[in-house]
Amino acid sequence: MASMAHFQGRLYCMPHHRLTCWECLHSINAGISGHIPNPETQSGIRCKQSAFIVEPKFEMFHNTSAILGFHCGLSPEDQVKLADHMLPQFHTEFNNQPCEDCRLCYFSPGGQLTTHPSHICTNMERYVQVAIRPYKFSRTSNQIECSATFFFGEFYPASPMTASYVSKSKPDECSMDWNLDNAEIASVVECLRHVEKKLVPYRKSLVKDYLYTNSEYFAGKSWRFQLVVYTQLNEHVLKTLLEAHKLKFSKSRKAYIDRNTIGLAKKVFPASEERRYRISSFIYRINKLALLGIQVFFVHTERDPDHIKARRSFWEQPKGQVFPQAAFNESEYNDDQGQYDEELREDDLLDGDDLRDPTGHAGFESVETSTHHQSGGNIFDSP
User: Fold this and answer.
1) Do 179 and 169 touch, CB atoms closer than 8 A?
2) Share of the chain above pLDDT 90, in %
3) Are 171 and 324 in contact (CB under 8 A)?
4) CA distance 153 to 368
5) What is the pLDDT of residues 157-167, one digit of tens each?
6) What's the number of CA atoms in the CB half-sphere (13 Å) around residue 245?
7) Domain extent listing, the chain
8) Which residue from 36, 134, 189, 377 could staple onto 148, CB 3.0 to 4.6 Å apart?
């Protein structure tokens, strides 16, 4: 039986009279010994940081059973069984909820408004949205640059998390669009780094004054979130980003290889050395966020007029770098292209997330700028 002998705190949240309330960020728990620590002391119920690690996601955002919470009331055994079966198609309202207090835009499947600063949804998850908007491409003798703003909502003044960065990539002997895509991938990677370095501590600070708990685990879950990234990347490029962690990179073929069950190559995704480095950096960032307890989902949106104009303007800049016809045809990203049925040598293959960098990228770090590009239209189109 739990001991109340030395407990001097508040057992229940005031609005709902719950011992554990994810809306109020209130949770009082008994330890294994039955003792109930006070929230104000340092003798709370500990937990390992590994308790927060989640499986990295390389997925588009869609109405999966996990996101909508259609299995939350089942036993763990039945939840696993359900995940292996196709569910009927459910239609739900997707609600974008800007919070004037957080100055972040949250997402709620089901349409129910969430409570500041918890913003927990009915499926016991919270979702923070960010839209990546490229607005300028430029070049130097040895760099391709993508200037982009990461919007965390449409607020005035801007959200403290909204930021603009110039991300850089190395030019390679491929088409102009291929090179611009490399720089745009670098921008996506920088956005994920920005989330880790800036958004994570910001979310911690938002809940600090509201949190009332004696559980390290509850405290850690109170600020964590799932990230929904809106990107205008070429759809075939985005598809490769989300599949590459399962593939091997062939150094001789300069391509990601999808192998069949007996190890033969059945499909290839061409990639220059620069593209491979950018994809590996992307996988690294997704995995690193998962170690922090944050899963990332993507929504593809059409290029806005500023993005289209920026790509066109790139042609008009001084031609310090020559871009030949594409060495790799982007049509080869389609499922019915690039079929090979031949044996692969293991010593020729690298893991999809291998970050070895034989050409070096010192001096290619992204740079934050003080000017934010203005968004046009709805930055968070519905998934």
Assistant:
1) yes
2) 52
3) no
4) 18
5) 789 999 999 99
6) 15
7) 1-45, 53-369
8) 134
Contact 165, 367 (CB under 8 A): yes
Q: Is the overall model pTM greater than 0.85, yes or no?
A: yes
Q: Which two tokens stand for residue 278?
A: 């950018």
Highest mean pLDDT among 255-264, 302-311, 317-326: 302-311
Beta strand 104-109 with 265-270 is unpaired
CA geometry: angle at 306 spanning 303 and 312, to 5°?
85
Would you say 230 and 380 are in contact if contact means Cβ atoms under 8 Å apart? yes
Residue found under tokens 């685990």: 217
Q: Which amino acid type is present at position 232?
A: Q
Residue 43 forms beta bridges with which residues?
none
| Position 98, amino acid | P
**Can you tell me the distance from the alpha carbon of 110 to that of 262, in angstroms, rounded to the nearest whole number?**
44
Cα separation of 373 and 314, whole Å? 18
Task: Return the H-helix or E-strand segment holding 129.
Answer: strand 127-139
* Residue 343 burial (10 A CB sphere; 0-12, 13-18, 19+): exposed
Strand order in the sheet with 26-27: 20-21, 26-27, 212-213
Q: Is the peptide bond before 117 cis (omega within 30 degrees of 0)?
A: yes
**Section 227-241 average pLDDT:** 95
Contact between 193 and 218 under an 8 Å Cβ cutoff? The reply is: no
**Number of other residues whose CB lies within 10 A of the CB of residue 80:** 11
Partners of residue 129 on adjacent β-strands: 228
Alpha carbon 249 to its chain centroid, in Å, reads: 23
CA dist., res. 383 & res. 153, Å (int): 16
Task: Quick: pLDDT tens for 308-361.
Answer: 999 999 977 665 454 544 444 544 443 434 455 556 677 778 887 887 776 778
What is the 8-class DSSP label of residue 331? G
The count of C-alpha atoms lying within 13 angstroms of the C-alpha of 266, restricted to the half-sphere facing its C-beta, is 8
Tokens found for residue 280 = 């590996």
Which residues are bridge partners to 165 per DSSP? 148, 368
Q: How far is CA 184 from CA 54, 148, 171, 305, in A?
A: 27, 8, 13, 16
Both tokens assigned to 166: 């110039």
